[in-house]
Design brief:
Tumour Suppressor Smad4; 16 strands; alpha+beta; 4-stranded parallel β-sheet; Rossmann fold; 280 residues
Length: 280
């Protein structure tokens, strides 16, 4: 296999030396560097290799997924801060060892693909605050502790029902994933829907309302690894093909940690067996 290597040179764990090592290990037919947001999508569409490897974090992986031609396998070299998708899949540290194709489901929301998670509510508002606003202002990426503080503050502050999850009911926030791991807090995997699998459809979890009591249950269940399915005051669906969410007023939407702007409606869909990802 002679892959194209797409690199985010600004990712936290990407260095020139490491890029050369990955190029050599893969025998890349070309190496393409991203220059701006959205550029990786364009590069993926024009990639000459018979596979595409991405060196960077979840953001650049998401961009590549939205430009990757049908049938072209994807490999990942973890180079970001959290690397949720790579860690959840268990991709090898040595990209040369990624020789087996694993066929998985991708999510899509309002036409935008996502690799592992999307949502409206506490997750999207935290991304908006820490990435779109604060990072754009000073260029610094906040760590896991900052994310935990913002999530806890927002949950404790409370949310009333403000969206309609079609077929489930009224809710304050909605989290959608195609794997059990929604994100990581350092080394700890945070599992929202423990039954979700990359080979299945989408799992949906929605909280009817949030406040101090619900926040305590939410954080305790995440910390102990039990997941949130079955939590009192929650709605859920397993292995769904699609779910439509209508907002009372425009709310932030995120996918794979990327701020997709405010939406009045979101349609989440499962693209079953859409991607061959290269694993060990």
């Amino acid at each position: 296999m002679r892959p194209t290597l797409i690199v985010n040179p600004f990712a936290s764990r990407v260095t020139e030396r490491r890029v050369h090592e990955v190029e050599s290990r893969l025998g890349a037919v070309e190496t393409l560097l991203t220059e701006r947001p959205g550029h990786a999508t364009e590069l993926a569409r024009e990639a000459r290799g018979d596979a595409v490897f991405v060196f960077g974090g979840d953001g650049v992986v998401n961009e590549v997924l939205n430009g990757l031609p049908a049938g072209k396998p994807l490999g990942i070299v973890a180079g970001g801060h959290t690397n949720v998708f790579a860690r959840a899949l268990g991709v090898p540290r040595d990209p040369g060892a990624a020789v087996r194709e694993r066929r998985i489901t991708l999510g899509r929301v309002n036409g935008r693909r996502f690799a592992f998670a999307a949502g409206i509510g506490v997750d999207s508002e935290t991304v908006r605050e820490l990435e779109t606003m604060k990072r754009a202002w000073d260029g610094r990426r906040r760590g896991d502790l900052a994310y935990a503080r913002v999530v806890a503050r927002r949950l404790l502050g409370g949310y009333e029902p403000r969206v309609e999850v079609e077929g489930l009911g009224r809710a304050a926030l909605v989290l959608v994933s195609n794997d059990a791991v929604f994100t990581y807090a350092g080394r700890i995997p945070l599992r929202i829907s423990p039954g979700a699998r990359f080979e299945g459809g989408l799992d949906v979890w929605a909280l009817e309302r949030a406040g101090p009591a619900a926040a305590a249950r939410f954080l305790a269940r995440l910390a102990t690894g039990r997941g949130l399915t079955g939590m009192p005051g929650a709605l859920s669906a397993h292995d769904a093909d699609s779910v439509r969410v209508v907002c009372d007023l425009p709310l932030p939407l995120q996918a794979d940690g990327e701020d997709l702007g405010d939406v009045s409606e979101a349609v989440f869909e499962a693209e079953r067996a859409a991607l061959s990802v290269l694993v060990a």
